[in-house]
Design a protein that fits this description.
Oligomer: single chain
Distance between the termini: 95 Å
Largest sheet: 9 strands, mixed
Radius of gyration: 25 Å
Length: 150
């Protein structure tokens, strides 16, 4: 009898160990990637401003992901911006400067909603379902009209 008891206990222990808690841990999350896009419009004929000057953001600034209660869930930083210029109107009175900073955060845990912030700008609200539908790749856009600057 003791051999059977030992064998039964051993099999039960192996079965429990193989099940462990696999499948019961919440997912570590999915990294969020994307682009911080600033569209700046300025007077044609003036030198194109630097991306840092029109956006309030610079390389290395934080990108944060918080839950609805303000708890920090993940963070990353802005990469180097890419920019170009193009006419903003048909008469070529203004020029548009799109500045694009790439970013990637650490894994974002599963929550129903998030607030994603870039640098000192106000965070924007996102629903988890929207991030999933966008394959965890978003564009956060800001428009700046700087035609009135000297």
């Amino acid at each position: 009898m003791p051999a059977r008891h030992w064998l039964g206990s051993s099999l039960l222990a192996v079965a429990l160990a193989s099940c462990g808690t696999a499948g019961h841990h919440p997912s570590a999350g999915t990294p969020l990637s994307g682009t911080y896009l600033v569209q700046a419009t300025f007077n044609t004929g003036k030198p194109a401003p630097a991306c840092d000057a029109v956006s309030g953001a610079t390389v290395g600034d934080p990108v944060t992901v918080d839950d609805g209660d303000g708890n920090r869930l993940a963070s990353g930083s802005l990469g180097a911006p890419q920019s170009s210029t193009r006419p903003a109107d048909l008469r070529n009175l203004t020029t548009q400067l799109p500045c694009r900073w790439p970013f990637t955060t650490g894994p974002v845990p599963n929550r129903p909603s998030y607030r994603i912030g870039v640098a000192a700008n106000s965070p924007k609200a996102y629903q988890r379902a929207d991030l999933v539908n966008q394959h965890w790749n978003i564009t956060i856009e800001l428009e700046r009209n700087i035609t009135d600057l000297p």
